[in-house]
Amino acid sequence: MVAMNAPGFVVGSLATRFISDMMGRRSTVLASAVPIACGTLIAATANTPWLLYIMKFLWGFGTGMVSTVVTIYLAEISDKDLRGRLSVGTRFMFNFGNLIMISIGPFLSYEVLNFSILVLPFIFFTACLWIPESPYYYLKEGKVENARKSLLRLKNDENVENELELLKQDVSKEMKNSSSAMELFTGAQYRRPIIIAAGLKVTQIMTGAMAIQDYLGRIMQEINTDMKLSTFLIIFGAVKFIVGIMSSILVDKVGRRPLLIYSFFGTGFFLAVAGTYFFLQEVAHVNQSSLRSFGYITFTAIILSNVISTVGFNSIIGIIHGEIFPLNVKAVAMTSLNVFGGFLGFTVSKGYQAVKNISGLCGVFWIFSSIAIFGAIFSYFTVPETRGKSLREIQDILNFGASNGLDEENGFNDIHNEKDECTELKQLRKETDVKNEICD
C-alpha cells in the first residue's frame, strides 16, 4: 500500500505534462483536487485491502499533478526576490498537514479521521478558483491581452507594461526551440540543467526522508526508550512544521547553494549517528540496558536529520528545478523529473524492508547517510546560485559555453544577436528595478 503512491505519482506527473500545456497551469491545479477527493472518499469507505491500494494510487496521482504544476506556476508568476519563499510555502503547508494528521490520528477513529479530511480537497478547489493564470502561459499561447490582465492582478503597479515587454521577449526567445521530450534530451543547452536536476532528485529521494517518515513508527519501536510512540510521532511532526517556517525565511536570505551543501552534510552526519546506534544494537549486540540511555540520542539524531533536511535540500530542490529549465521545455522537464522521482520513491519504499532484512537498520541509515554526503559534494561542484536572479539570467549562467557545438559563422552571428538582446533585456530590467525602488 505504501509503495502504490509512487506509480500514482508517475502517472499524475505524465498527465500534467499535457494538461498544463493544453489547458493552462490554473486549470491543472484545479483538476488535481479530483483524484485526491476520490482517494479520500475511498479511504473513508473501504472495507477490503485492494481499495486501499487504489486510494494510495489516487492520492499519488493528485500529488503528482499538483507538485508538477505548482513548481512551474510559482516560478512563472513570482518576482525573483519572492520566488524562493513562495515555493517553500508549499512545503510549509505540506508539513502542517503532516503535523495535523500525526497529532489527531492516534485519538480519532479511522472513519471519523477520513471523513473529516474529505472536506479539504473541496476547500482547496474553491480557494484556487480565484488564482490568475500564469502570464507566461498566456504569452506562449499568443494571448497578450490576457497576459496583461494576469500581470495586473499579480503586480498591481504601474510597471506592468515594462514587465510585459520583458516577458514577451523572454518567451519569444525560449519558444524558438521545440517543446518536445526529444528537444529536452538532445539539446546541448539542456545538458547542464538535466544533470543538476537529476542529481538533486536522486540525492533527495535516496537519502530516505519519506521512507523514514513512512516507517517511523516501526523504527521507534526498535529504539529502547520509555516514551510512547504517539509522543514520538507528534514531536517529529511538530519539529518538522516549525523548521519549515525557518526555511521560508532562509531560502532568499542565505541562498540556495549554501543551504544545499550544508544541509546535505548535516543530514548525512546525523543519519550516520542513528546508524551507529543500530550497529551497536544489531551487530555488536551491546547489552540493551547499556544502550537504553542512548535511545534518546538516536531519536534526537533522527529528528535533527529531519530538521536539517527540511530547512535545506527538501525545501529548496523543487525551487531549483523550477528555475533552471527554460519555458519551452519546463513542463516536460518537470514531468520527466517527477516520473524519475516516482520510480526512485517506489524503489526506496519497496527496497527499505529488503535492505533492512539483509543489513539491519544500521545498513539502511548508513546508506542514506552516504548518499547525503554525496549530495553535498555534487551540489558543491555542479549547482549555481540562483537567488536574486531572474529566470532569463539563470538561463544565461547555465547556457554559458553551450553553443560551442555550433559552426563558427552561425555561432558568431547567434552570439552577437543574443548579446544585443540580452543588453536590451538587462536595460529594461534595470529601469524596472529602479522604478520599484522609488515606489518602495
TrEMBL record:
Q: Which InterPro entries match?
A: MFS_dom, MFS_sugar_transport-like, MFS_trans_sf, MFS_Trehalose_Transporter, Sugar_transporter_CS
Keyword Transcription regulation set for record: no
Question: Where is this protein found?
Answer: Cell membrane
Q: Which domain of life is it from?
A: Eukaryota
Q: Which GO terms describe its molecular function?
A: transmembrane transporter activity
UniProt keyword annotations, A-Z: Cell membrane, Membrane, Sugar transport, Transmembrane, Transmembrane helix, Transport
Membrane-spanning intervals of the chain: 27-44, 50-74, 86-107, 113-131, 194-212, 232-252, 259-280, 296-320, 327-346, 358-383
Q: How does it sit in the membrane?
A: Multi-pass membrane protein
The record places domain Major facilitator superfamily (MFS) profile at 1-387
PANTHER family from the xrefs? Answer: MAJOR FACILITATOR SUPERFAMILY (MFS) PROFILE DOMAIN-CONTAINING PROTEIN, PTHR48021
Protein name listed in UniProt: Major facilitator superfamily (MFS) profile domain-containing protein
